[in-house]
Structures are given as C-alpha cells and as structure tokens.
C-alpha cells in the first residue's frame, strides 16, 4: 500500500544523503498521507537516510504513535507530528543535522543575503533555542512548531534543521538550500565577514524565482539521477538491502 508515496520518501532519503545531509543513522523525513491527513509515512530509526525501502518505512499518527510497520520509530518523531498538526499546508518535514547549518547556528548571527541560496529564506529563519537537546517529547515538538510559525525552515540551535514543504520535493529543496546558504555565509564570515549583499531591490525577485514547484521537482530528479550514477545500481531497489529484522532496538535520534 502507498507504494508511490513510499518511493518518494525513499528517493528523498537518497537525495538528502547524496547531497551531504546524512548523519549516519540520524536524520529523518516524513510525508503525510493525502487520503488520511492525520497520518504520515516516516523513515524508521536504525538506518541511514539512503537505506529506506518499501518494507522498512513506518506509518505514524499525529500523536507520534507508530500505527504500521515493523521497524523502530525515531524518538524525535514529535518534530514531524507536531509540525504536521500545526501546519495543514505542510505535507513533508525533513529533520537533519547539516554540518554548516549547525556550525553557523553557533555564531548567533542572522542569515544574510550573501548569495542566491539565502534569498530563498528572505523574511527570516527562526531559531529554536529553548533547548539544544533532542526533541523527544510532544511538548518540545509543539514548541518547535510554534517557533517555526509559517516559515519554511527553522534552525535548531547547536542541533540541526526542521525543513517543510507542501511536497517532499519542496522540503528537500529547503533542506539543501538552508545548508548552502549557511555554508556560503560561513565562508564569508571566515574571510573577514560579508560586506556586500544581494541588493535590496533584487531580494524579493530572486526569492520568487527560487520558490517554484517545477524547480523543486527538477532539482530533486537531477539529484536522484546523480545518486544513481554514483552508487552501485545492483544494490539499489533490492528490498532486502536492509531487512527490518536486522535493526537494533535503539530508537535513535
Ligand atoms: Zn536531531
């Protein structure tokens, strides 16, 4: 059941991994069921982002309870359940620990329009700083959703990101773009600090050009083709690459 949706989630994990957003078995992505909006598909704990398959993806409800699947649920499930509860316009959430974004979050600086990527986030990137620990309770998930508000991405200080989208392609795009934007500003900060920025009159136009579903789709499909060219084709799509029975009991981050 839901084979096409699961395939989208599998592909999202492969793209996030191959674009450098993996953190061993940490990090996860979810996708709301269109015919049952109180439930969503999610990557299970204990495996890498690129190791999802049709058998190990789990189904979870908005209370964070697993309702289907044999694999373990991430203990940070509440990032997804509470954002999906608070935001009916959001159908997909990515939580990752991207290196440059986390490093950038330690500067306590605002993201500036240093290049194209940062203009995606014109209007601000909220920073969740109530805790730097993992989001393992409903209350913390709710607080994060409140910090996120109507924005596409929140940075979790000293921890990672919560990126959202109406589609899985959009949440992946937001994840990749926040990481590039933070990386670019870090480079400039390291070279004495940025002195010139995208012109005020250009920011809104550039942002508009970056917020299009066709762009999210094309970038996602391109990154997926790149993944397939890079990794061993005979290992892909084998449903027994990671059998659920091989998972350890740990729920993971
Ligand atoms: Zn985390």
Looking at this protein, list some descriptive labels.
eight-stranded mixed β-sheet, 8 strands, 8 helices, alpha+beta, L-fuculose-1-phosphate Aldolase, 253 residues
CATH architecture grouping: 3-Layer(aba) Sandwich
User: How large is the share of residues in beta strands?
Assistant: 5-15%
Number of strands: 8
Q: Segments where pLDDT lies below 50 for 5+ residues?
A: none
Largest sheet: 8 strands, mixed
What is the domain total for the residues? 1
Ligand roster: zinc ion
Number of helices, counting only DSSP H or I runs of 4 residues or more: 8
Structural class: alpha+beta
Assign a percent range to the helix content: 25-40%
- What string, H for helix and E for strand, traces the elements in order? HEEEEHEHHEHEEHHH
Shape call: globular
Strands of the widest sheet, in order across it, are: 4-3-2-1-5-8-7-6
CATH topology description: L-fuculose-1-phosphate Aldolase
Corresponding CATH superfamily: Class II aldolase/adducin N-terminal domain
Radius of gyration: 18 Å
Mean pLDDT: 94
Kindly, what is the distance between the CA atoms of the first and last residues, rounded to a whole number of angstroms? 27 Å
Assigned CATH class: Alpha Beta
